[in-house]
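Entry 14. Structure prediction run on the chain below.
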Amino acid sequence: MSETPIFELYESLKLWSNPICMKCRSSAKTDLCGPVGIWQLGDDFFNDPNRLVFIGKTARGDLHNEAEQQLKSRGFIDGTEKADLWIEEKWSAYWHYTAAIIEKLYGSIEIGWKKIAFTNLVKCNNSMDIDNTTHETSNYCLNELGVVWKELKIIKPKNIVIFSHDQYDRYIETFLSNFHHVEIEDKGKNFRIEVGKKQILWWEQECMDEEGWKFRILRTSHPERKKKDIFVEKIANWVKIGVQNA
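Output returned:
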C-alpha cells in the first residue's frame, strides 16, 4: 500500500491517544470524530512531474460510523477505500471538483488518481456536515502535533493546493515560517480572482527548505458554490504553469 509511510507516521505519533490528542479531546465542547488519515497517496505520485497534493479542511462523511474498532487498534480511521469511491461521485463539490481538476490534468480520473495525493488539514471533526472546527482544535492538530505538515515532509510534493479559504491561514503561516518562501507579487493572502460571478481567495507562494525541497503552494477558497468549469480551469492551469516553469 502506497500510504504505508504515512500510516507508520500516525502510529509513531500515537494518534488519538497521545497527550496532545487527549488534551484536544478533553477540551472539545462536542465529541470529536476521527482522526481520519490521508485520503490518497497514489502509486505513481513520486514519479509524476506535478507531484501534486490537494488538502481540504476536515474530513467529513459516513466513514466514522464504524470506526470504533479502527481507533482502538490503530488510533486512526483509514479512509482510503471510501476515497476511492467518493472521487467518482458528485455528492460533494469538494470531491467532484477535485475529480474534475484531476481529469483536466491527466485525461481521466482513473489515471490521475494514481498520481496525486489528497489529505486534510485537521484530522478530526465535530460535524458530519460543515466545518465547525474550533481554533483550539486546529491549534492542537496543526501547531502542536503538526500531522499534515509531517505528511508533507514525508512525501515532499512540488505543488500544494489547499481548499481552506482564510480560516487556517495562521497555521499555514506558522508552517511556512520554517522555509525560505517568496510570496508571488501582488498575490498575497487577500488577493482574489473572479470565478464566474464570485471571487475566490488566491494566495500563492514558492518555498524551499535547507535541504533543497522546493514546492509551490496555493491557498484558495473551498470549491462549494463556485462555478465549476472556471474553478477547475484556474486550478489546473496553476499546476500546469508550475511544471512548465520548473
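Strands lie at 40-41, 52-58, 117-122, 159-163, 180-183, 192-195, 198-208, 214-220.
Filed with the rest of this week's runs.
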